[in-house]
Amino acid sequence: MDDVAYFQAGSWQELPIESPLHLLIVEDGASNIELLVLVLETAKIPFSYDSTNTLEGCTQLLQSQAYDAVLAAYRLPQFTAYQVLQLLQRASLEIPLILVSRSLGDEAAVDCIKAGMTDYVLKERLFRLPIVLKRSLQEFAMRRQQKAAIVQIEQQAKTEAIVNQIVQAMRGTLVLDEVLQTTADMLHSTLNANSCLIFQPDVQGEMWIYHVSKAAADREDFIDSKCSLYSHYQDKLKLGNIVALSTINNTVAPEIQEFAKVAGICSLMVAPLLYQQIELGGIVLLQCDRERVWSENEIWLIKTISDCCAIAIHQAKLFRQLQEQAAREQILNQIAKIINSSLNPEFILEKIVQLTGESFRVDRVVIFCIDLETEQISVRSEWRASEEVVRIQGFKEPIWEWLNFLEPIEQSKRHQILQVPIDKEKAEFLTQELALIEQGRILSLLKTPIYIRNKFFGGISLHTTTKHRIFSNEEIDLLKQIADRAAIALYNAQSYETLEELVKKRTQELEQKNLISEAANLAKSDFLSNISHELRNPLTGILGFSNILLQQIFGRLNDKQKQYIEGIASCGNDLLELINDLLDLSKVEAGKEELVMEVIVVETLCQSCLSLFRERCLDENLQLKMFIAADVKKWVADRRRVKQILINLLSNAVKFTEFGSITLLVEKSGDNLNLSVIDTGIGIDQVDQLALFQPFKQLNSGLNRKYKGTGLGLALSRELARLHGGDITLKSQLGQGSCFTLHLPMSQLP
Predict the structure, then answer these.
(1) In the list 20, 273, 296, 638, which could disulfide-bond 595, CB 3.0-4.6 Å?
(2) 317-334 pLDDT per residue, tens
(3) Does residue 233 carry a pLDDT above 50?
(4) Can you list the domains of the chain with their CATH numbers?
(5) Cβ atoms of 169 and 180 closer than 8 Å
(6) Residue 367 and residue 391 in contact, taking contact as beta carbons nearer than 8 Å
(7) In angstroms, rounded to a whole number, what is the distance separating the alpha carbons of residues 306 and 172?
(8) 594-620 confidence digits (pLDDT tens)
(9) In what order do the strands lie in the sheet with 455-464?
């Protein structure tokens, strides 16, 4: 479709060109201007226009008016279209310049387009002007859109680079103060503001300005001051909305106007710091040198930074909480170690107040204790951060000052917090509280009681003397735990003192009993020694005379006489054996028995013991066996006492075995020599085994009557074995026999 057909095919309104247009016509002669106007009007193009035929007039119009396009003749009497193009370029006007000429060669047309002119129309084909104008306007509209898009992309990239730069700076440290100060400084420089403030809530939820950009001229005026903006805009900020004021005029709240007037603020912007709907503070940008319209990119930038900053604050808080938890556990562990390492209450309390003061970073820590005689609470232990802190070691106060703590109360109320206002004279204090405050120069106080087994002992108190301090719930809980540890230490110390008294008393009682026991043992030994002498003398005569009669030197005895005399001799021998065992046992128990150690041939000793029972075993049809391991040759022991032990064990085995065998088994086990006497006799019940080795203890009464014995043999044998450093053990099952084993360790020759 040619230009004429395109022109005739549609109207101006059908083309995507804004209307009406404002045109500048640079043409010489009214007829030429009228011709151009007629062509445009014929095309039904709504427009207005200004015209000029001088370069000066063109310059003035371009400076004073805004035009959508310029229609200029190629050559005028005093200038050309090239000079008009230079005016547009110097003024940076992005509008089409269409050349109108009577004749223009192809080479000249190319030069004009290269120079920057948009298009050209020959007067003989002036009907093309509307089409060329529309096309040129569309082309420039597209250029402006592309340029705006490029500018927007560049601004977005620049903003993202700034965000990344700030975020990287945040990630460079986990110290919250450093993160916030870095954010304030970078926002200040990036957005070219006069001040950047960051406010945060204190323990009570009030917003305070803690960080101000270092480049701010009024930094000292803002830092550590309450944020008055928050109270007015908190509803918007809680919802995550940004407050941006380009002009602070009468439409703004009076208190904000007053704040801006005092601080010299022209524009401001406030962005909230929110993390999962939790208020963490806010960022404030102040412009003081001029009124400032905050762009969408700047609002987006501070919104993005505030979100990142909120995350950083949350993470830093989590990290700080972990550090504080670790510190709390550390101080509790240190206190526990001190409690376990000492029972000196004064030393423990001194260490507790020291660790508590260093952990809480307060100026003074004191532990009070109760004195029931004087009905007063006095300082028992005190720690001070420095010598400049006043000592209150001698301070006392009546018990009724701690009346609420005299009985254990619920955990949540086991503390008292006291904040001293600046004007103490107008504050309401109890007399003793005021005295303590004055003497100790206290600004903040936290105290909690100490209970020992649910009885009030005193309390532990924290003081600040240089600045006011708000104690967090975590700090209050930690102090309560420290008070509990102090109670444990004091209870242990008191218990130890009580235990020492009991031990001392018990030791005295035992010493007294030992003296009595030693005297009794001495008396028993003297008695046994004397009685054995008194018994042995007549017993020797009885045994001697009975042996003479049995030898029938002075005449023969009839059977009845011989039977009676043999009975007398047997009873005498039994009585002699009882006396000897009793004397041996008493000597061992009294520690007067001494062993005679020598090298013994084990097989010879065993054969000697077995020879005493062979004839009796043959009479009772019992097999008497001996097994000695090949590696057992010699041993060091007291020959007489070992033989006595084996004879006792073999005697019991023969006594309680009616059929079967009796075996003496000898073998080594490590550094021990084991001599086992094994029988197939009646066996011993598990219950009876417990009392078998006690003096004068025998099996049940039925066996007492059937088998004779004093009950001293096994008791004496075990004592003699233990005197060697060994023992006698028993394995037995009722009805299946017994195994008594003598364990003898290798002894050294003297």
Answers:
(1) 638
(2) 888 788 878 888 888 888
(3) yes
(4) 3-147 (3.40.50.2300), 172-321 (3.30.450.40), 342-498 (3.30.450.40), 518-593 (1.10.287), 594-745 (3.30.565.10)
(5) no
(6) no
(7) 17
(8) 788 889 999 998 998 888 888 889 888
(9) 396-398, 376-384, 364-371, 455-464, 444-452, 416-419
Strands (E), 504-589: none
Total H helices, total E strands in the chain = 21, 24
Owner of token pair 């269409």 = 98
Residue 373: pLDDT band with limits 50, 70, 90: low
Contacts of 563 (CB under 8 A, 6+ apart): none
Report the C-alpha gap between 341 and 351 in whole angstroms: 12
Q: Which of 435, 448, 459 is nearest to 379 (CA)?
A: 459
**Separation CA 228–CA 206 (nearest Å):** 10
Q: Which of 207, 239, 221 is nearest to 286 (CA)?
A: 221
Q: Which amino acid, residue 315? A: Q
Cα(471)–Cα(111) distance, integer angstroms: 82
Quote the longest CA-to-CA distance of the chain: 197
Distance of alpha carbon 61 from alpha carbon 603, whole angstroms: 144
Of 743, 691, 737, residue with least CA distance to 715: 691
Q: What is the mean pLDDT of the chain?
A: 80
Strands of 119-122's sheet, edge to edge? 47-52, 21-26, 69-73, 97-101, 119-122
Find out whether 161 and 186 touch, Cβ atoms under 8 Å.
no
What tokens were used for 100?
Answer: 């109108």
Which residues on adjacent β-strands are paired with residue 225? 209
DSSP of 212-260: E-TT-TTHHHHTTEE-HHHHHHHHHHHTTPPEEES--STTS-HHHHHHH
* Token pair belonging to 273: 């710091």
What number of residues does the chain have?
A: 750
Peptide bond into 272 cis (omega under 30): no
Here the tokens at position 471 are 């104690």
> How far apart are the C-alpha atoms of 450 and 439, rounded to whole Å?
23
Tokens of 560: 């009845």
- Angle between helix axes 713-723 and 639-655 (nearest 10 degrees) is 150
pLDDT tier, 9 (very low <50, low <70, confident <90, very high otherwise): very low
347: enclosing H helix or E strand: helix 345-360
Within 13 Å of residue 233, how many CA atoms lie on the same side as its CB? 24
SS3 423: coil
Query: CA 661 from chain center: how many Å?
Result: 72
Q: Closest Cα partner for 61 from 100, 19, 95?
A: 95
Q: How far apart are CA 163 and CA 302, in angstroms?
A: 9
| Burial (Cβ within 10 Å: 0-12, 13-18, ≥19) of residue 334 | middle
| Residue appearing with tokens 């000079």 | 83
pLDDT for 286 beyond 90: yes
Radius of gyration of the chain (CA): 58
pTM passes above 0.70 = no
444 three-class SS: strand
CA distances from 590 to 238, 520, 586, 593 (A): 91, 11, 6, 8
Integer Cα distance of 711 and 480 in angstroms: 65
Strands (E), 53-191: 69-73, 97-101, 119-122
pLDDT of residue 739: 93
Q: Cα 38 to chain center, whole Å?
A: 90
